[in-house]
Amino acid sequence: MMVEDLLARLVAFPSVVGTPNGAIVAFIADYCRSHGATVAVLPGPEGDRCNLFATIGPRDKAGYILSGHMDVVPAGEAEWSSDPFSLRAEGDRRYGRGTTDMKGFLACVLAALPKLATSDLSQPIHLAFSYDEEAGCRGVPHLIAALPHLCKTPVGAIIGEPSRMQAVRAHKGKAAVRLEVIGRSGHSSQPHLGLNAVHAMAGVIIEAVAYGELLAKGPIDRNFEPPYSSLQVGVIAGGQAVNIIPDRCTADIEVRAVSGTSPLTLLEPVKAHLEALQTKNFKTTWRELSAYPALSLAADSPLARLLTELTGKEALAAVSYGTEAGLYQQAGIEAIICGPGDIDRAHRPDEYITLGELHACQQMIEALGARLSG
Predict the structure, then answer these.
(1) Where in the chain is the domain with CATH 3.30.70.360?
(2) pLDDT tens figures, 18-48
């Protein structure tokens, strides 16, 4: 199948993050097996979602991983010009949810598979396709944990997130948490008899925002934009009616940390402010929603040099968005980002990728196969 046909098939699966993904996994698994790949479907603990791992070439040698995620963000925006789960052609552009982030890369890998399968690979090429990346890289840790049973330790992983086919050596780490304050409800005319959870959470948020402003002072890494770690309160929920003292309030907070800084460690002062409410008779909970480490790959690493040769472009030092690459590096596998499309088109109505970008990515993957042949 041509890369455009494969992209159309993949986009047609509404594999929204947090939902069952059996249909898209079955399609990819069948396609890979039809071209001689060894395939492992790896169910996650949720019970209705799976990772997929496939290998072309000798399994007893150390090779390269081509990594991508099968899930996409929801597509409920009214601004879509057409059905987001039906690929639409307009000139060189192909529109649909996930075309850039990141079913375009998956289509390129699958389109290259027939050529890879007929090559005499001296090292294997592995396909590592994950679930629920858009929820904070929740699926791939289970896949990485299974790698020792699936292959020899790979020498490198190429994470195909949209980077305009320019390799990227570093990105920030991220952690997201949910804070909950539990107070005591009552009539708003007698506030002294209740414990207002919204008011209490407001104090925590004020402290968190002030702390986030301090993060801008450093550590500083000029490779990133912005060049410092950041904090955001993204969601607040609490209360039932204006005349009822709210007994519960939650807030979702994230941090994005420059390389060398632990995202979860950055959140410790926020946790301390939350738990201090317990001295005022509030109950509190702290739940980690997601976390992944930063990526930091040396400019002179063999993997960075390889991608420069394959793409004809020098690797970019860093980006501020996050990927699964840091988790591979944490597991002892060198990782780098390189994929078709532009991150600025992701998570928006009328997301698109161009045929030129798809063909360039497929050629890069086939060039990798040629280097490993013979």
Answers:
(1) 173-292
(2) 999 999 999 999 999 999 999 999 999 999 9
**How would you class 58 by CB atoms within 10 Å of its CB: exposed for 0-12, middle for 13-18, buried for 19 or more?**
middle
Q: What is the pLDDT of residues 304-340, one digit of tens each?
A: 999 999 999 999 999 988 999 999 999 999 999 999 9
C-alpha to C-alpha distances, 221 to 205, 218, 228, 261, 318, nearest whole angstrom: 26, 8, 6, 11, 10
Write the DSSP symbol of residue 336: E
DSSP letter at 312?
Answer: S
Region(s) of the chain under CATH 3.40.630.10 = 3-170+294-371
Question: Spelled out in words, what is the top-level CATH class assigned to the domain 3-170+294-371?
Answer: alpha beta
Q: What is the pLDDT of residues 148-186, one digit of tens each?
A: 999 999 999 999 999 999 999 999 999 999 999 999 999
Task: Kindly report the backbone phi and psi dihedral angles of residue 261, in degrees, each rounded to the nearest multiple of 5, phi listed first.
Answer: -120, 130
CATH number of the 173-292 domain: 3.30.70.360
Predicted TM-score of the model (pTM): 0.91
